[in-house]
Amino acid sequence: MTALDPDDHTVEELTEELETIDDEDELGAILEAERAGQDRATAREAVHRRLEEIGADGAGESDGVEEGTETEGEYEETSEAVGEDADGEDRDEDEIDDSATESDDTEDEEAETDAEDDADDGLSHPTRDKKHVRALEDGDYADMWVFCETQGGELLDVSTEMLGKARELMDGFEAEYGDEENVVAFLMGDDCEGLAEECIAYGADVAVYHDDERLERFLHKPYTEIAAHMARGQGTVESTDWRDYDEPRYILFPATNNGRDLSAKVQAELDSGLASDCSDLFIENNEISNPVKTGEPGVKKTVEKVLHMKRPDFSGFEYSTILCLDNPDRDFHPQGCSVIPGSFDPLEPDYDRDGLVVEHDMDLEDDWFRVAITEYDRLEAGIDLTGHDVIVCLGRGIADAPTEGMELGLDLVDAFDDAELGITRGIVTSTYQFEGHVEEYSKEERQIGETGQVVAPDVYIAAGVSGAVQHKVGMDESDTIVAINTDTDARIRDFSDYFIQGDLFEVLPRLTAAVQAGETDLEPEAVADGGDE
């Protein structure tokens, strides 16, 4: 029996112990002990790797499992071994002999080609070329990066909102872990140095920008290449000497049209994952037991500094928390997400705040700018539902008489001094037939929710709204929420301050009359508190 019993160690611990053993016989005994015990594919591979490192005979044997493709209890036979071609048809011996001869003839040529490829494969980073997906392993990660989208020479509101949240998270990070890491804003465009300085005022410690007049408007290829280049720390010494890590620990994008596009492309380029359309973020440790993440079944592992990314799930009524965790032999960094506009409050800008502004250096290929914008029309701004004292929102409850329901909602809006009408996604995607002038109020520009606008009025009146999570994220910061619904089990009751059980076609006219008369208290039998009643 070997002095080292592999059953007493996790794969990670076993790998560390193997580094201290140089005796081929002892390693062989450990391998046999592993086969007789838990027989973990990853553990066997660790022993084989150590045998290769010390130059032992037979070190290349790998129990029929190719490194990086381990599957417990399974292996694939090659078509040559079973005498079948790729289409599953039998191959005769002559064909097999011919292919073997051809393989021998081309062996030297392939070796030369491989040597040339290894000498210069055009890669400057493990995640640079998707033909060679090689994620970092045991990389060094730090800081929270925020992509600050601009439009018309100004930062979008969601950019300052994300900077405020990032500042809050990283201040908490320092308090919890004792590590001081930065909030890094990154942006690109035409003449955007001033906007980079503005990012410092809104909470960033470092702002990295790339200026080029061709970047005035969002373009997929150059924006993706620049963002990935920045994240990897590539460029001149002057533009990168402020950092000493491989890639960001965390990265945030806005869940705008351009932000959703860029986030997916950049995270794919960096060979990591993405949680889209998030409405809340927090950082804490996690204890996990998934064998894919721990390296072996039945083992628990604590992972520190995990970004928890909350988003509505596909049911529409619950939230899911997304985690981006490393595998034992493969890192998933940066941990990234896109953030729904309006989810967080920006900080009050401090223009005296100290910070580092860095101009990024990179040669942009002309081929990235094959699409040129020769002219454009500016669309009307649309309807801005934010900033009003009262929002009246209509949902699928108007289905029995869509036009009448819309008119009743507009009547209530007119009864207030500062109110506006909103609608749910259900109305936008419905086939309701609206007549007359009310049709213009059924457009997507009035949608409230995850893929619409986010509002926080003093009073939010939801009539015929079920309360799906996708809608909730667009209005749950309202001071007072009043729900009108015939269904006492409607989800919106759970987060309403007042729940009125009734038909909106009957309740809305009464509510309008009460507001016009200055009597905002409804009769007791018509009102049920959103609590236990």
Automatic annotation (TrEMBL):
Residues 144-371 form the Electron transfer flavoprotein alpha/beta-subunit N-terminal domain. Residues 1-12, 32-53 have a biased composition (Basic and acidic residues). InterPro entries: DHS-like_NAD/FAD-binding_dom, ETF_a/b_N, ETF_a/FixB, ETF_alpha_N, ETF_asu_C, Rossmann-like_a/b/a_fold. GO terms for biological process: fatty acid beta-oxidation using acyl-CoA dehydrogenase. Belongs to the ETF alpha-subunit/FixB family. SMART domains: ETF. Residues 13-27, 63-121 have a biased composition (Acidic residues). This is Electron transfer flavoprotein subunit alpha. It comes from the Archaea. GO terms for molecular function: electron transfer activity; flavin adenine dinucleotide binding. Residues 1-130 are annotated as: Disordered.
